[in-house]
Input
Amino acid sequence: MKFGFWLPVFGGWLRNVDDEGMEASWSYAQRLARRAEEIGFDLTLVAELNLNDIKGVEAPSLEAWSTAAALAATTEELEIMVAVRPVFHQPALLAKQAANVDRISGGRLALNVVSAWWKTEAEKFGVHFDEHDERYARSEEWLTVVDRAWREPTFSHEGRFYRTTNTVLEPKPVRSPRPTVWAGGESPAGKDFIAESCDGWLTHGDPPEVLAEKFQGMRDLRESKGREPLGFGAAGFVVVRDTEAEAKAEVDRITDVRQSARGYANYKDWIENTQLERTMTIEDYSVSNRGLRTGLVGTPDQVIEQIRRLEDAGTDLLLLQFSPQLEEMERFAEQVIPHV
Output
């Protein structure tokens, strides 16, 4: 089991709490990443959105790829998974950019291919927005070009979405045969893309028994394509307290919709443009990525036991969120990580 965390590029994860004490700034991101690798975290995920979908579109958010390059140069061991949305990046150019970040980091780059969902954001930035299944068709062709650029001395490509001629990319990434490629998706089109083209599947939070069933379905799909096994990652929001009552009180606080709801319009946009397997609840709205469903709430012993269940279910990577991030990560690293 690897422990990863979402870099708080949006200034937090709670749609109902305006100030979580974790500003969207490079200084905070750098401090957090450097401390995380000291206390036992393996990976950080840098999300890519040009607008803030958690705190509201007027709130600040960090740009993913420049932040990732800076992290690559200022950390030593932390794996840096960067989200990339194909519709925002020409594939051969992104392959060049990513190879350079991988070399700066000494081979610590991974990709999270996100087939986009936020139509409003695309319109605000003048980017074409495909309908749902077309987004995954684009992603598959996009990743084909990226993968060939990383592996082949020279190549040409002509497809539905992209065309390149005699493409040369040097130097190649440090990682061989390529940086690890993860993606998320719960629709048939999304799952087919991941099973065919990716190295790992990232899913929203769910209980261990639900994840075990989902992972087995993806294993079967992957095997039907004659491919090597996938890695499996799941999101989780962590609340560790000395007593169950204290943990419950914190969950009640962060899911109180009366506090603030500036991100609700963005949340509705996400729901309308995705195809999810689970009905969403107000807790899922309040805490991003269905993080509370993973069940990492309670005393240290309870959270440790739940992590063991998640591992037994087939989870290879936990992508965790905390609020406030640094203080709660310190608590998790002290009270949980050494025991699992």
